[in-house]
Amino acid sequence: MSGAETRLLLEKWHGGDRVALGHLIDRNLGWIHARVSKRLGGLLQAKGNTSDYVQDAMVQVLQYGPKFVMSDEAQFRALMAKVIENVLRGRSDWFTAARRAASREQAMARESVLDIDPRGKSVSRPSQVYAQDEAVELARLAIGLLEDDDREIIILRQWDGLSFVEIGERLGVKEDTVRMRFKRAIPKLAEKVTLLRNGDIAKLLE
Questions:
Q1: What's the pTM value of the predicted model, to 2 decimals?
Q2: How far from 57 is each of 53, 54, 77, CA to CA, in Å?
Q3: Which residue among 9, 12, 76, 110 is least enclosed by CB atoms within 10 Å?
């Protein structure tokens, strides 16, 4: 599948074309499943049908995660595999929880789509997004690329709205430890947001 086809299918899916979603899954699931299985073999085997489990996670990411388009097939697959790994490792419902939390704060533009192709390329953005909406969606996608501990602490604090004391009680650590972990995680998130905004997917996935 060429980069142009990848981008076109993503645009169609974000426009409500469920056939395009099926094509995205059919064309990419084999590669993504092989990549995820290589890294999470034991975890997936414990779940039973590993292919179905990865497919369900892929549908969840595409359906409830931030909407984005890109034109590099290899980078799309690697990006999806990374997010899916983290979904399978951690809280499987965090994408939907994050969207609900964001919706309480502002009316999010459902048609907003992130264009994460490298800047400088002549590509047309599929929709006009407001800066605030884009920032929220970039953060949601970037969180899916964080390491487990960083992702967990940010979700609990920023999306679940728990206090540092409550997070400490849930994780079994001291409040000061929670504050330190959160302080360290925020710059990592900011760095990934910047890389996404600049379309520097290769560096993001290093």
A1: 0.78
A2: 6, 5, 14
A3: 110
